[in-house]
Amino acid sequence: MSVILVFLLVIVGFVGWWLSHQRLMAKPWLEQGLIGDIIGPEGSALPTAKIGLGVFLAVVGCLFALFTSAYFMRMALSDWQALPLPRVLWFNTGVLVLSSIALQCASVAARRGEIDAVRLGLVTAGLTALAFLVGQLVAWRELTADGYLLTANPANSFFYLITGMHGLHILGGLVGLGRTTAGAWNGARPERLRLSVELCAMYWHFLLFVWLAIFALLAGWAATFIEICRQLLT
Amino acid sequence: MAIALVLVLVVVGSVLFHFLSPWWWTPIASNWDYIDNTIIITFWITGVVFAAVVLFMAYCVFRFRHREGNQAAYEPENKRLEWWLTIVTAIGVTAMLVPGLFVWNQFVSVPSDATEVEVVGQQWQWSFRLPGKDGKLGTSDTRNVSPENPLGVDPSDANGQDDVVVEAADLHLPVGKPVKMLLRSIDVLHDFYVPEFRAKMDMIPGSVTYFWFTPTKTGTFQVLCAELCGQGHPLMNGVVMVDTPEDYLAWLGEQQTFAQLSAPQQVGSAE
Amino acid sequence: MVDVTPADGVPPAEVAEMELYHPHSWWTKYVFSQDAKVIAIQYSATATAIGMVALVLSWMMRLQLGFPGTFDFITPEAYYQFITMHGMIMVIYLLTALFLGGFGNYLIPLMVGARDMVFPYVNMLSYWIYLLAVLVLVSSFFAPGGPTGAGWTLYPPQAIMTGTPGGQDWGIILMLVSLILFIIGFTMGGLNYVVTVLQARTRGMTLMRLPLTVWGIFTATVMALLAFPALFVACVMMLFDRALGTSFFMPAIVEMGEQLQHGGGSPILFQHLFWFFGHPEVYIVALPAFGIVSDLISTHARKNIFGYRMMVWAIVGIGALSFVVWAHHMYVSGMHPYFGFFFATTTLIIAVPTAIKVYNWVLTLWRGDIHLTVPMLFALAFIVTFVNGGLTGLFLGNVVVDVPLSDTMFVVAHFHMVMGVAPILVILGAIYHWYPKVTGRMLNEAMGQFHFWVTFLGAYLIFFPMHYIGLMGVPRRYNELTATTVMTESAHDLNAFISIMAFLVGFAQIVFLFNLIWSIRHGREAGGNPWRATTLEWQTSETPPAHGNFGKELPIVYRWAYDYSVPGAKEDFIPQNMPGSFGSSREPA
């Protein structure tokens, strides 16, 4: 459970930092009326939707941290046999990076108001994300063909489970991306479009990060890394 | 108003119930009276806190109930009082935790002279295995389980051949000797629990858990399963008999070893 | 003392055009409504309905325990299905849904001064997915083999084996699917509750001016968002084990003489995941109750809550600590014994902030002006049962004391007292308190008094003696105690007494439901602020509040939520949106 605890520690740190700016030591009964420094809208200047997405991503991060924790705990048992990662995963990683870059470009373009560039970025991102999903399916088929079946070993089970869960999140993201893309063609208000594109980009970057972490986990690097850290500590 | 009276009655009733009711733990038959003492300490501390809080509440309700023209005091906080209460609470909590951890340390440190006894749970019966003359239990694996080898003892392990196997029958233990119970299950979770011994531990298929105790009284005790194991759970009873050393040896002499049980000619002659 | 800026001269904040979806038809107003208040009522009604099922199930259990052998239709299978469904419904589908989905939806926007939740559409989806989860759960009663009987903890391997009802039938699958749906639905709602508190507070509503109800629900929601994924992971992995034959949790097993295909898995892994959710879940239920009861006590004792800041810090502290105590549910699970030292220590540390909260509630009563209204009675009863249940938690949290007591009726008594009876007493008190705001009418007082006395005393008489049955060593989850030798004859009589009490308490809840329906039409008209309370929900221009909550302009907040009996003020309460400075000496002597 150490992975999830470290993850939660990060969250606690963030919450603590935020709370420390909320005057928790104030004596509210002494503060009647509007006080100079607290006038103005409460809450953050960031768009509410971004904060909402941020909270959601924390939940998604928690989910994958828990899968990782379970992975390490199950890995410690004797019947674990790591499986060889299909080469196509490298290609998929590259494609997903491209997808993120495309959305980043779209988001920059949206800020500048270049609608054509936005459209180009959105479509590229969508297509590359689809390519990623297809690539993942190819990886699954390769493994199945080579006899690495779901039930044969817990390492295989985790591979299918975690990549599948990540794929579902990409799929959900594609729904949002599809709506944004439709909006880019149907003339959504520029500031609205910009927000949607930025939200998509945020979500994409996060899923890319999650994918890189998963990739490192499934490839066994994460375990090696933790082993090195442990040796350094002791 | 009635509520103030009822609150007092709740406290008085609870305390009287605690001291006068016939429902209390069974007489202890193991060395874990340390655990009982820790429970008693906890009862005293928590009981005093419960009575104090509820009686204080009753007094407040009685004394400060609404009457025409009353006005509540205005007191947002009282740092000193809050600190004092925090410190007193921390002391009370420590007074329960420290003896608890102390006893837990004993509970998990098995004395070196403890004899090993294996308990195997399955739906819904108890079986036991004692080390034979060599004093060692042979290895085992659920994969080895078969009708001839109900406990899954490894047939190729020489240590296991002289192990005494008690399938679905009573376990006997000699009084006064520490035992380390090695707990194993071949299907679901079970929990070997004898209320008189105070100790218990889950049994997990695929691994071996343990606890230790020293029986201090001879007699017959019922084994209960304390972890839900399917619909036969409440009927998964067993018997542990704590014997004098002579009785124990007599019983042990009647038992069969793994080698005897798995020898082909023995099949069919079992009682 | 910080003095007041000329508040009266400050214009109200410019309220941006909220993207409220105003209903156009009956369907969008009452069924597919995006108004948090309607969603709150939908959540509450669904939770209450399924909660009544759980109540009836508890009666069935008590029939069997109190009068063993008398009722043939309660077979062992049925008994285990009843306890499982009772537990799961009560913890997840009733308490969590009612506190967060019900009270959260109704009170958060009103109390922070918002027009609605920030994502109304997602909020609506949240309810409908919750309803779907409930329907899937209910459908398992009609599936072949019936619902699962694995106990609410659903421990593998037995949860997915033939020796357990529903293990190899549909029961366990429907249970897991229902939980997964619930978590998805809850996450949608939870995002709303959190972000609304973060972003939609009205002008002047700093965090330290929030009523403790909002603090409690807010913290509980943050915890739930982080804890429910653990249950999600556990459910998905178990579903794989059951439906696809993987071995995440399943070791090599011989079942009824046959070797199963599984191998190598770890049942303990499931327990870690389950309790990583399960322990925070206790506080997910408790923290909203803490918050609400603070407001009830303060309002009805006409006194500010004692030590507001300490209360806030305690809520946040308990919330954070509750993530590092989960393994105290696993002291006798066979995990590494040295974990016991760590988890016993963290568990007992949590007792300190919890105790501070209790002290502050009773100190709020001290020198108050206590109105013994029905909500206040429930709040007082909450303190009694919560203190009782919390203190027995010190037995079970202290690792070595837990050894003889775990998995006995002592545990059952403890958790029912602390997270069953206590939070439900708060829910009931809260309903008496806010019903006038929701409907515009008061609940009937006589029925309320009857309901209170029977519920409080009955519940105490059920669960207090039950501890002692556990102390005798009687294990929990036994449908049949006749073969258990520690169970004496007199203890059987005690069990029968407990069962009779259970029926009485259940009956009182039916009276309460009748009261809820009867008072909608026949209750006394309440007016906008019958309790003379300070918080914003009582200051709406209409009662019940219309869509958008506050009419044309959002209120501006000038003070904290607890300005009761301020010396020098005309009335014994000053609403949060009342400008101006009152009181000569606010610093305590």
From TrEMBL, chain A:
The chain crosses the membrane at residues 6-24, 51-73, 88-110, 117-138, 158-178, 199-223. It comes from the Bacteria. GO terms for molecular function: cytochrome-c oxidase activity. PROSITE patterns: COX3 (PS50253). Keywords: Membrane, Transmembrane, Transmembrane helix. It is found in: Cell membrane; Membrane. InterPro entries: Cyt_c/ubiquinol_Oxase_su3 (IPR024791), Cyt_c_oxidase-like_su3 (IPR000298), Cyt_c_oxidase_su3-like_sf (IPR035973), Cyt_c_oxidase_su3_a-hlx (IPR013833). It is a multi-pass membrane protein. GO terms for cellular component: plasma membrane. The keyword Transcription regulation does not apply. Pfam families: COX3. Residues 1-223 form the Heme-copper oxidase subunit III family profile domain. The keyword RNA-binding does not apply. One of its GO terms (biological process) is aerobic electron transport chain. Belongs to the cytochrome c oxidase subunit 3 family. This is Cytochrome c oxidase subunit 3. It comes from Mesorhizobium muleiense.
TrEMBL record, chain B:
It is a multi-pass membrane protein. GO terms for biological process: ATP synthesis coupled electron transport. Gene3D superfamilies: 1.10.287.90, Cupredoxins - blue copper proteins. One of its GO terms (cellular component) is membrane. Keywords: Copper, Electron transport, Membrane, Metal-binding, Respiratory chain, Translocase, Transmembrane, Transmembrane helix, Transport. Residues 135-158 are annotated as: Disordered. It is found in: Membrane. Its main location: membrane. The chain crosses the membrane at residues 41-62, 83-104. Residues 112-254 form the Cytochrome oxidase subunit II copper A binding domain. Its EC number is 7.1.1.9. It catalyses: 4 Fe(II)-[cytochrome c] + O2 + 8 H(+)(in) = 4 Fe(III)-[cytochrome c] + 2 H2O + 4 H(+)(out). It comes from the Bacteria. GO terms for molecular function: copper ion binding; cytochrome-c oxidase activity; oxidoreductase activity. Belongs to the cytochrome c oxidase subunit 2 family. Subunits I and II form the functional core of the enzyme complex. Electrons originating in cytochrome c are transferred via heme a and Cu(A) to the binuclear center formed by heme a3 and Cu(B). This is cytochrome-c oxidase. It comes from Mesorhizobium muleiense. The lineage of its organism: Bacteria, Pseudomonadati, Pseudomonadota, Alphaproteobacteria, Hyphomicrobiales.
From TrEMBL, chain C:
GO terms for cellular component: plasma membrane. It comes from the Bacteria. InterPro entries: Cyt_c_oxase-like_su1_dom, Cyt_c_oxase-like_su1_sf, Cyt_C_Oxase_1, Cyt_c_Oxase_su1_BS, Cyt_c_oxidase_su1_bac. Signal peptide: none annotated. One of its GO terms (molecular function) is cytochrome-c oxidase activity. The chain crosses the membrane at residues 38-59, 79-108, 128-150, 170-191, 212-240, 282-298, 310-332, 338-362, 374-397, 409-432, 452-474, 494-518. This is Cytochrome c oxidase subunit 1. It comes from Mesorhizobium muleiense. The lineage of its organism: Bacteria, Pseudomonadati, Pseudomonadota, Alphaproteobacteria, Hyphomicrobiales.
